[in-house]
Design brief:
Blueprint lengths: L17 H28 L4 H23 L7 H24 L1
Helix pairs in contact: 1-2, 2-3
């Protein structure tokens, strides 16, 4: 895409043939989200070390939030500022949750 072409704002605005690529990416991200859900479930069930399991579940959940924001809510398609803001927000909230859990 050249600099003169407008940025596609939705899947319907993508040039012919690119919607399939977009769907393939979404499918791969969906598989990653399902895998992360199963991984966090296994980590929680195996919880021999409760602190390690809780940290793993929170970090996996943060990664899932980042994937949903970027690919399904399309935050990454807007201005870069929003992408940075939400990345910082996810990291900050996850950090607060982790510190609160460890100190509790």
């Amino acid at each position: 895409m050249s600099e003169d072409e407008p940025v596609a704002r939705s899947r319907d605005d993508l040039p012919y043939g690119h919607a399939g690529v977009h769907n393939a990416v979404l499918t791969r991200v969906w598989v990653a989200l399902v895998s992360a859900t199963l991984l966090s479930w296994v980590a929680a069930e195996a919880g021999e070390i409760a602190l390690l399991a809780a940290v793993a579940v929170l970090v996996i959940a943060a990664a899932k939030v980042g994937l949903v924001l970027r690919y399904f809510m399309e935050v990454g398609r807007g201005s870069g500022t929003w992408g940075y803001f939400f990345t910082i927000w996810v990291v900050a909230v996850t950090g607060v949750m982790l510190v609160s859990y460890v100190l509790a």
